[in-house]
Structure formats: C-alpha cells, structure tokens
Amino acid sequence: MKVCGYRLRDHIRLLLLNAWAELLIVAAITFTRVTGMQNIYTAPEFSMLSHDPSQVRHIVGHLTFGIGFGTLVGAAEGCLLLWLLRKLTPKDREQPFGSR
Questions:
Q1: What pLDDT score does 84 carry?
Q2: What are the boundaries of each domain within the chain?
Q3: pTM above the 0.70 mark?
C-alpha cells in the first residue's frame, strides 16, 4: 500500500524512529528527576507553563503529542520533498550507463 509515494513500511519506520527519539528525551527527563540535576528538558523556562516538579505531564506530553505530531510532520515533510523532487527533475533524461 502506498501513501503519497511511500510504502506503509516507511511510515512505520518513521513512527519507530520518532518513538525512539521521544523515549530518549523521556529517559533524560527521568534521569534528571532522579538525580536532581537540571537540563534543558527540566528547566522551568523551557518546560510547561505551570509548575510540575515531578515532570509527569511533561513526560506524558512527549509520549503522546511528541510521537504523534513528530510522525505526522515527518511524513508531511517527506511527501513535500518527494513532490518537489518529482516536479523539479527532468522527465526525459537518458538512461544511466549499462541499464538497458
């Protein structure tokens, strides 16, 4: 099954890649919470608007919206790039050497 020129397995790979990235961010948030250190993921100026010392809402946000929006935006960027490449490349080009 193809969606926007991509096979379904490509979308599944994108979902898994985004899930892995978000899990690494959640691991960093959890690590800073356990050790008491701060990084960019737990600093108040880069975190949620309300005070959440346990960072539970922040972690849930990454596991829900981060994976969902990351996958959708990544797929949309891939579709746009594929469409642009198809429009910008010449249609009648010669065959590469040795591909008869």
A1: 92
A2: 2-88
A3: no
